[in-house]
Fold these 3 entries.
Entry 1:
Amino acid sequence: MQWIVPLFDPDLGVEEEEALIGVIRSKWLTMGDRTSSFEKAFAEFTSVPVAIACNSATAALHMALAALEIGPGDEVVVPSMTFVATANAVRYCGATPVFADIESLDQWNVTAASIERVVSSRTRAIIVVHYAGYPCDMHEIMALSGRLGIPVVEDVAHAPGASIDGKSLGAWGDLGCFSFFSNKNMTTAEGGMVTTRRPELADRLRWLRSHGMTTLTLDRHKGHAFGYDVVALGYNYRMSELNAALGLVQLARVSERNAKRAMVVGEYRSRLAEIPGILVPFATHRGEPAFHIMPVLLPEGVDRNAVMSAMRDAGIQTSIHYRPVDTFTAYVEAGLGPSDNVPLSHVVGERVVTLPLFPRMSDDQIDLVCEALRRAVSAAQPGA
């Protein structure tokens, strides 16, 4: 379908084209010097000692938990209001995800209090998600982590460049996991990154990324090594040079694009305030967000499918971020849901609609979206 206003619109141009051509002309396509440069630049961007590139945020999450030696019999606290990969990574390790609720119908992030309510003697890690690019209260969450002795993994898929008190998200927890999927604030097409401030985890992460091997193909190509040992059960989670080349270009402009996203969100908020019953979350927020997506909460009783169908008919793409993970068939059948611990997540999951948001979005496009939403909500009211 040709959308008048798409949900997202990747900002790609000549610089990205030239970066990819440079890789092709180099004839070195697999993980190499560009990947190393991307890792170094990203570590500097987030002010962490180590950044390790991989092929997705899902791989990043799995590597992070595996590096912490999470395994069968362990529990990991995760939000239910997140993409399913956050919880799937826990299950990849043979551990059990335990779901924590959001704070309120305005604040859609987990809190130290909601995490502590579901912590047990088997809890071995906590994953927090900075939903929509809005920072969790990392001061309180890290204080809880220190008190309980439980490490924290930050899922920063929505929030590259976001910070609290000048400290980047991904630098607060023991590990940070980033996504560079095509709809993210910066993209490598497919790709991810793990950051850590704990040096002892760095070698484990590198082994996990590439089959547990002690040297890489590039090392042997350059004559720096002739063979390798395998010292751990690893995976094939490497990033290619093509992805890294895109990442280097995109990283240079992510802060500028986040600022443009902030302006779009500000325009949205002023217009959406005029639509009766629409709630825009994070009316107040801490730190400096990344403004990744534009979720709204429909009025109670409004037919969401009717609203989204009307928006589609108007040429405007919408989505749902998210259906709570504990309600998916695979989780219910595994005995992991529905969870009684996340009632607010269930309320949001039934009423959330995600509106288009991208840095180059114009005022006219915002007007089209908001007017279409106003008409759609009016028509979908009970008894309308």
Entry 2:
Amino acid sequence: MTTTERRRVAAGRVREAEDAVETLRQGLKGVGLTLPSLRIDPVSCAGNEPAPLVDLGRCTIDTALRLSAVLGLDGQQGDRA
């Protein structure tokens, strides 16, 4: 694969990650939630062959509880053995 082809593939990966972030942002907005730090992790986009990661970031406890409720996780605390 040529350098130009690698750059094209890399740009496509970053665009795909940007689209995923925007889709998630709009979906969360539709249920009244905002993750203020939602973004693409810039470090994961570095290098010749980036593998972009979506950084969900930090949120308030209230937002975490509301997100849990939207996901149907009210009152569940996972498996604690």
Entry 3:
Amino acid sequence: LTPEESADIIMAHPYDGADLLRRYKLPKEIIDIAEQHHGTSLLKFFYVKAKETRDVTESRFRYPGPKPQTREAAVVMIVDSIEAAVRSQKQPTPERIRQLVSAIIRDKLQDGQFEDCELTTKEVWRVGESACETLTGLFHERIEYPELKKEGELHANHFER
């Protein structure tokens, strides 16, 4: 697919999701969050990819919006962006998670994504801190548990015969 085709598919998901929520008669507040959770954000990956081969306008790679209208929609925007970015990292360390969260929040603030809702800058950073704590807990290194074998114990693969 071309970067534009990929962007079109990805940019449709908030509105396709909202249509599905309407069909199942979910509350308007939930539908609004689905439609607003990307605001007018830029799909940077596909924008940069397209720009490598030709001149393109940035607006072609932006969600049509609207920007988050409520604090809840803004929080979903922040954590959705953070979760997707951290999940794409090969080995997320606490420091890399913190740097990524900080970069995402700075980018959203500079892009004016929260200007239509009542979420303060302090609250935006508080959401980021909470996301860091949660994701660091999910992705921290774990020790490998030793296998304890006792005489006469069934093998771990005792279902295979």
